Amino acid sequence: MGLLRILGAFGPHTMDLVRFGKGFHTHTATVDQFQWSYLTRPAVDPKSREIVVFLHGLGASKEAWVRVASGLAKNYHVVIPDLPGHGKTTPFDPHINFAADRQARRLHEFFESELYPNNKVHLVGTCMGATIAGVYAAMHPTRVKSLTLLCPWGISMPNVSVTLSDVEDLGKFTLVSPTETTMTTELGESRHRLLSSESMHTPRILQALAISKRGRGNAVLHKVVVDMLAHPTILEDELYKIQAKTMVVWGEQDEVLDVSCLKMIDEKLNITRKEVLVLDKCGHLIQNDKPEECVDVLNKFLADEELSFTSMKESWVRVARGVDKRYKIIIPDLPGQGRTTPLDVMANYSMPSQAQRLHEFLQKEVATDKKIHLVGCSMGGMLAGVYAGLYPDQVKSLTMLCPAGISMPRKSEVLKMLEDSGRNLLLAHTSDDVIEMNQALSHKRFNLPRGIASIVASERKKQLPVLEKIVGDSLGNPTVLEDLLPNIRAKTLVMWGKHDRVLDVSSLEVLQQKITPEAQAQVLLFEDCGHIVQHEKYVECTAAINKFLAGDALIAVKDQA
To answer: Which of 62, 141, 142, 219 has minimal Cβ neighbours within 10 Å of its Cβ?
Structure first.
């Protein structure tokens, strides 16, 4: 089998250091038996303790991350080491064990020696480096502030990748690393095509430089691969120990580690803050194929900002983690959305049908003698209200944020656009439309980088048939919630953004007329806020939910300027 021969020829990044390396400095440090070579880029504020550590992939070196790291916000201190067995970190000893857990221990010793004592770090890794980053986060959960994994090794692969299939079934590669006599330009560039979604024409002089290094380090690189293959699910087995917020990014056209690995990660990585992105037209070398997108998502993720405003379960995490810890919290992806499957274009997504599915789900997940506190926004707010109207005995309290399904005495901007031009921003699936959609959702200007807009648009385009069915079925009865308001008996809290451009706040007039006194409806109207109350006013939203659940009375109409 010849994984080494395929992965050992990661494109040289010498030119990246020349083009993007301004502000980076090279250092060496002797820690235990290793002399580490690493790059740093100091933060603008010398007192900053925000440290981002980048870990390269198999056969690569620290320079592989320079292009992306150079675009990181200047408030971060950047550290990029050559991992043992790679680059200029020595010794090159084929007798060393390079398994991911051993490498994670060495990384910890390096941190203890070279970083601030007990300082949390943001870890970013690709391929082998992502495996080591993940294993480190599992071994030292109190030392990791965030974790970003790009196509990590060490996960079961439900669908075997093209590369591994070739290696295992056809034996068409060997573990012999290229030499000057075997590594032709044609072979080198064919390898790059495997790793990237597009051909990368590497200058001959840089190929020769890489060849020379491969010849000297062949035995060590061989040993690295052997040690990695000895435990092929080493990261998967440790996922349950990870506590840091985590972002996982994969190239949809990755022919080295198939994107189906995400299924295993989604099942076994049980944390409250998890972002998963699949990049179209992208292979295994994400930082090469999509450098601008890498920079955009990293800056957003590290700053704890929403990558975009989504309708998936993760959109509630920021508020939910501030809710009183006495409550058990459940946040599902609704049928047809997120990672709840199947995404069936033939299903009925009307609110009564969705309410029935929600009821079946809750009967399985919640004790039969327990009533629930139900919270929803927009379409989810409509579903929450419909559920409370259809199953009144199951609901202890109801919180709706700008719910759909109620008449609008004054038409919203988005509704006017739909009626006048036929454009429905709810179905946005191009970069421009996604940017416009996010602007419509928010009152304050939301700067969505085009790289992220492209990622979101690509995902929405794939799901467009189901998305069209959901929107069509959900809005098939535009007053479905309004019609059920008289049935709601649970105490009710309604929150709305005064500047909502998607569902006009005038719907509150209808709601207040039709909901019964038994619901004891309380209303909070937020100034300087649009449709996404839980994002723009998450502090106030969390506080209101806590007071409401505790039984405290809220002001009838409250401005939060």
So the answer is: 142
